Amino acid sequence: MSERDELHGIAALLRAHAHAGVDPELDRVGQLELERRLALAAPRAVPRSRAWLAVAAATAAAAGVAFFVLEPHPISYEVHGGRSVGPYISAPALTPVTVSFSDGSSLAADPGARLRVDEARVAGARVLVERGRTTVHVEHHATSAWDFVAGPFDVRVTGTRFELAWDPTGEAVDLKLEEGSVEVRGPFAEAPIAVRAGQRFRADLASRSMTVIDSSAPSAASGASATLPSAAPAPAPSAANTPSPSPAEPSEPAISAHSEATAERPAASAVVTESWSALVARGQFETVVAKAGDRGASECENACSAADLKALADAARYTGRSALAESALMSLRRRFGATRDGRSAAFMLGRLNESRGAAAAAERWYETYLNELPAGELAAEALAGKMRTVLATAGRASAEPIAAEYLARYPNGVHSKTARDILASSARP
Fold it and tell me: What would the mean pLDDT of 174-203 be, rounded to a whole number?
């Protein structure tokens, strides 16, 4: 092999490991090794090319060592107050058990609950809730990847707080979301169901039901759920999901002056068979979009109920129809702007525009929601959204007061790390 070939080979090796960081102590040891090799080479008057080969080889060796030493490892965890045999974790009959993860996330299992850490990952874990209720706090990081599995239902999160219960005897799942948002995949939906803060997801395998309702509803997982018989679907409570829309043009806030008294609001006890809300709760998004198309876009915008407009916006976002979703939300604002649903639509429009990359429009909608519902169930998420969008449009200095406000109101919130990072950067010299 020629010297040129050797040099090319060493250069390729260096490029392969150039992404690996080097610990300061390891770097010092590498420099000493380089000096030692050069000192040994000097008396023999090695040709210049050979000397460079020695330097490059030593550098490549140090990079290779750094690569193996610094290779990321899966997160670790500790169990407190319960029994742990390998990945299996059991809470005693009368006392809870807590699990602390090295990334700052934690689980608190109720007495009698049983969990299994099925897979520990570099940026998260896959946890099986085999029995009982578990309160979850996932610390948000840029690469977070967590899955919580209850029976055939898979809850995917990046950063949030929620309670998840699974009854293996009754085959019923109950998820109550306190902060953030999650996606639930199950056997009865064609697409993932998004659940946001202030909502509760329930499903029952025996009755084939799957619903999304307000978290203030009764806590029994199966007692309040609508059922889906094998032949024909039955009604379910209304759903309001946080979507992942596709790109479209940004819009400006428009606030209605309609009063609460004039707004159309379905009676609390009224249940309409095959309602759009029930279809969305079961994942039948295309059916809702088709029904809206049958009625005509303008006719629905002017005549659909608040519940139908809300369901249509959810269905449109799930199927990637961003313009239709925005139109439904704007109609909800225009006709029912003084109601809680109309005001919550401002947050949805903020999330919609942020996902498009329209940060300025998103920030205005988040601000609108915070002005109208400063203590609303989505206030923490709206404030975090405002913090992100101001950071993107106006820079770190403008985002610092919002980050400070977030930490003052939600010191242990899902987005507290992002807020601290913003403030820490300004404190660095």
Answer: 83
